[in-house]
Amino acid sequence: MNYNKKTVKDIDVKGKKVLLRCDFNVPQDKKTGEITDDKRIVSALPTIRYLLDQGAAVIACSHLGKPEPNFEKWAKKQAEKGKDPAELTEEKWRKSLDALRMEPVAQRLSQLLGREVILTADVVGPDAQAKAAALKPGELMLLQNTRFEKGETKNDPATAKALADLAGNDGVYVSDAFGAVHRAHASTAGVAAYLPAVSGFLIQKELEVIGGALAAPKRPLVAILGGAKVSSKIGVINNLLEIADTIIIGGGMSYTFSAAQGGKVGNSLLEADWQDYANDMVKKAAQKGVKLLLPVDTVCGDKFDANAQRCTVKAGEIPDGWEGMDIGPETVKLYCDAVKDAGTVIWNGPMGVFEFPAFAVGTEAIAKALSETDAITIIGGGDSAAAVQQLGYADKMTHISTGGGASLEFMEGKELPGVACLLDA
């Protein structure tokens, strides 16, 4: 995939209407609807400010949550979850949509920018059309939740065309929603068939930093992979075996490797069907001269609980009834030593159950080691980004990706539809 894409700085937006795809899919308090973390909104501000300063009229759009815009499909999904079909009324369905309207996002965006944000009542309907037509240079409007449109997630050409039409004949499409570029939706990829498409500053940085680390890394390149499942990281491991100097395995996925080598893993997370694959990876790493590091000891709990009884054992010697919850002290030392002299470190997935303080030791040690190295340090979104932020090391990292699924697919070497559709530089 070509990572070298045109950006907002490569085009003239003065007096033009710009359809700007952001990632405003922010967490909210279930009861009040209040936004509990506005990082995604804040990260879109540089592109928004730039476009407004350049005299563009900005039509921002984003999805929020997973609304089901079709009543029959919604009722079917709820019934499958065991809800009483008699209670699945149109009124309840509408309430489920109302909970995911963009009002809280518009309010927070307005506070952060210190200016009015015009909010539409629909996505591509009469209200959005009228407000887009009246929008003047230097003004900002926000469309209603793009997933309220049935054609959005299907990348329906009619929906994409309707979105593009809001920007008019000489409009421009700017993509700045890295967290959504791995999905081929109408607002992330389809619109590029109807408008010249370029990246915003957020996507530009992701492409430069992660793309650069994959294409021409400062060596040695050390990849740290954690998280629950081997199956979700297969593509990443395969791709990294071609380019990394060292691959470090931790988290729940390490127990599948341990079991594959004949170890006892007790009640630990285990993907029994992936043991042959794990052994293949070990062999492949040896053939390619890639150093593959696996845990040498494990911190276990007698149950999956923050206050579980703990014990530390050698890897592959987890007692029956216990489960691996973190890497052990010897492994911590081994892994921290491996990143000391790295040129580039890519980290995706925690080393243990970092949500429980007693089992966050391994994850925190890795975060601390990365904060002290001179290497380019890239955190690949999702749980690792949450861990680094929660543990207070975020400002010490070179780059924290804004996309969990997108950064994983990026590291797999997959083509990202929302990036492939942008104009090449």
Helix-strand blueprint:
Layout: E1 17-21, H1 39-53, E2 57-61, H2 71-80, H3 90-98, H4 103-113, E3 118-119, H5 126-134, E4 140-142, H6 157-166, E5 172-175, E6 197-199, H7 201-215, E7 221-225, H8 234-243, E8 246-249, H9 254-260, H10 275-288, E9 291-293, E10 297-301, E11 310-314, E12 323-327, H11 329-340, E13 344-348, H12 361-372, E14 376-379, H13 382-390, E15 399-400, H14 404-411, H15 417-420
Parallel strand pairs: 1-2, 1-5, 2-4, 3-4, 5-6, 7-8, 7-13, 8-9, 13-14, 14-15
Antiparallel strand pairs: 10-11, 10-12
Helix pairs in contact: 1-4, 8-10, 9-10, 11-12
Largest sheet, in brief, is: 6 strands, parallel
Share of helix among residues? 25-40%
* Rounded mean pLDDT score: 93
Q: Can you write the helix and strand succession as a string?
A: EHEHHHEHEHEEHEHEHHEEEEHEHEHEHH
Q: What general outline do the C-alpha atoms trace?
A: globular
Uncertain spans, ≥5 residues at pLDDT below 50?
none
| DSSP helical segment count | 15
Q: How much strand?
A: 5-15%
In total, the number of strands is 15
Radius of gyration, in Å, reads: 23 Å
Strand order, main sheet: write it out: 3-4-2-1-5-6
**Quaternary class:** single chain
The structure class reads alpha/beta
Key traits:
single chain, 425 residues, six-stranded parallel sheet, 14% strand
Structural overview:
The two termini are 13 Å apart. It is built from 15 helices and 15 strands. Helix 9 packs across helix 10 (275-288) and helix 11 runs parallel beside helix 12 (361-372). By secondary structure, it is α/β, with parallel strands linked by helices. Strand 10 (297-301) and strand 11 (310-314) form a beta hairpin.
